[in-house]
Amino acid sequence: MVEPMLIDLKALMVEREDCDAGTVQQLRNGLAQGKTQYRTLREVTEALKKKVENSTGAQAKRWHLKLGIANFFLGHLGDAIENLREAEGALAGFYLGKALLERQDLDEALKAFEKAEKSGYTGSQVQLQKAGIYRLKGEATQARHLLTKLEDQASHNAEYHFQLASLHLLEGQRTNALRHFERAVELDPGHTSALFQLGHANDLAGNDEDAVTFYERCLNHPPVHLGLLMNLGILYEDSDKYDKAVDCYRKILHAEPNNEQAKLFYKDAQASLTMYYNPDMDMANSRFSQVLEIPVTDFELSVRSRNCLKKMNIRTLGDLTRVNEQQLLSSKNFGETSLLEIKDILATKGLRLGQSLEEGASFERRFPNQQPLSDQEQAVLNKPVSELNLSVRARKCMNRLGINTLGDLIQRTADELLESKNFGMTSLTEVREKLRQFGLTLRGD
Hints:
Helix 15 (242-255) packs antiparallel against helix 16. The protein has 27 helices and no strands. By secondary structure, it is an all-alpha fold.
């Protein structure tokens, strides 16, 4: 099978001055071919800058338009906005609105779209973008009103289904939202935003392979959102594809050189490329970790011992290795008989009280004086960890470690979390800040 020839982006963008919707579609098609096309477009922007410098009047405005659109598809939103403001016409107004919308400058984006419509840009396309802005501003009724007026677009317009799906998502109608995202992709297989939402839905559901498939399809249909690259990079790391993860973070840094999160993830992924791996040690550590995660409820404990451990929020054998005899005996109704019972259970698994303390861990109560928890305090600890609304990377760590509640989480030290795959200082800071909102800290903090 003969591969189609690459679209000549230099001829398209530099060798002729005119630029219309057809030019933009050709640009998208060219970038979708991948290979060296993004690098070529970066070279094209340099050539366009020289054209701008050497032109005046109407001619300069046309070069500003092309330079603005080129920067938009490269993800350089600041440069795109600066140049599109210097251009004129319906196309310039529409893509200025798109760039401002990407930057979440909603009021200015609305003005740009209205100007584009007055200049002759397709009314339905502008109205759909405005519906999206109203939705983002929290004005769902106004967004719904616009979409109702555009119901005739349902048969053929992917953007209509995307905007309707996004509104359903805002209103909590997840099933309807996914149905319309899927319809958007049926009508336009290159609808990047709809593909991203389908990828994100699978990502949240833990369907990593499907999420990667949708995210990778997005890469073929620019402009590529930075959030997509971040999510895809994390999924690549989870499947040990560190070279691909590095490439994702590098693309983010091309667009936003000062993106601190991307810098940290890029550094972590690069380090993982050269990390030494000992499978025997990893297997041994994995087995030991599984033993530590065994719930104390798996053993036949006396009612007194079981109640005391519950009051102290001790749920696993690992928790028991992080307390000493004195701490157990200080709990009300916990005596020598219960202590011997606990020691015998640990001994069957080759563990002992205080073992983790000796290895550098620490134990401290979440509430003062080691008194039994109040109903209110216990309710806080029983909250699912999902209520922290963690990022994808932090959430995957919680799942990997079997952390289901805030009570589970505060029994972990910072070092324990940092030992988890792909969990770095950015995620640790996020977890600490979220816990602080509930008046909690990690063990040892």
